[in-house]
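Justification of computing resources. Each target in the renewal requires a structure prediction run like the one illustrated here; the chain below, 171 residues long, is used simply to show the kind of job we budget for.
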Amino acid sequence: MDRRVLFLGQAPARTKNPLGPLTGRSFRRLCGWWGVSLEAYAAHVERRNLTEAYRGDVFDLPAARRQFRRWAHAGYFAGRPLVVLLGRGVASAAEWPHEWYTIGTLATFTGGWLSWRTCPAVAIPHPSGVSHEWNSPAARVQAGEFLRKMIPQVPVETFSSVPLAVAGRHR
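Resulting structure tokens:
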């Protein structure tokens, strides 16, 4: 059972990064808001994608939903301190009913007869440059402060003390 925070994305970027999944330009941007190095982020969190191929703007929601359910039934989320759902597509695949930055729970199988339990999860906007959620500087500050609060095991290098802004809904 993995006890690291899991960042769950949609699909790999067009170009693979040697540090692994979810480490490209979008995640360098997110790490900057968070105040952590990309190396610290890569060392302290697990990163997975629901699908294995980049297909441009096309996201295969039914396939992603099937993969999400396979992982839940296999107990993949069990024991994790937090699962971070990155963007609308992943939130939809997980059938996430909450607003951005709202902590909820995921049901996950832990083995044995009817051995289901929950783990905490949250959906945040995807940090890509095409996401309109990041047009506001206050939204970027909110993301950084939220991540520092929810994932304290990643060493923070610098951070801002600007007040949090209200985030929008993911649906």
